[in-house]
Amino acid sequence: MKNNDTHLILRTLDGDDNAFTELVDKYQKQVHALVWRKIGDFHIAEEITQDTFLIAYQKLATLKKSQSFSSWLYVIATSLCRAWFRKKYRREQLKQGTDTTHPENATYSEYVLQEKERITAETQRDVVKKLLAKLGESERTVMTLHYFGEMSCSEIGAFLYHFQLIFSLLIFFLFCYILLQIYSW
């Protein structure tokens, strides 16, 4: 995995843009999941993810250890999230909310069904956010990468530069904790 990254980085530095495309394809989902969890907005997370890879491409020659490419992406993405929070207030994002326009051709029963589905989805998102908020920053990051980024424990370990066993145990215990919180309501 790391040797493949090193090979792709060297090819990119030699002018092969397809090699960088392979790196983007390999890490885009994980970076987006991380940013989405930090920002809370799917579409803004997409923009920040794109910016992360743009900066990585522009500064690839400055990367000291090509084996730590994924960790470097994590640092870039986290820095961009911090910059986004400095520019925007979270209250402005919450006030804007979701689009409330509905197609004119929709029947009332379709509208009611869509509203119920929207409210259910919002409620579920709120419950998950509240449960994740009870966890520490590093635990939230691990849970997000595992469940939303669909990363394995070894991939999370490589991405965050830690040991696989620790993440396996952490994910197991956090999952149990969340289940206990859900069933105690």
How many β-strand stretches? 0
Characterize the main sheet.
none
Q: Ends: how far apart?
A: 43 Å
Fraction of residues in helix: over 70%
So how many helices? 9
In CATH, what is the homologous superfamily of the largest domain? RNA polymerase sigma factor, region 2, helix turn helix motif
Order of helices and strands: HHHHHHHHH
Task: Provide the number of structural domains.
Answer: 2
Mean pLDDT: 78
CATH class bucket of the largest domain: Mainly Alpha
Proportion of residues in β-strands: under 5%
For the record, the CATH architecture of the largest domain stands as Orthogonal Bundle
Return the CATH topology of the largest domain: Rna Polymerase Sigma Factor, Chain: A
Shape annotation: globular
Structure characterization notes:
The protein is an all-alpha fold. It folds into two domains: 97 residues, Orthogonal Bundle (Rna Polymerase Sigma Factor, Chain: A), CATH 1.10.1740.10; 75 residues, Arc Repressor Mutant, subunit A, CATH 1.10.10. The protein is built from nine helices and no strands. Helix 3 packs across helix 4. The chain is globular and about 60 Å long. About 4% of the residues have low confidence.
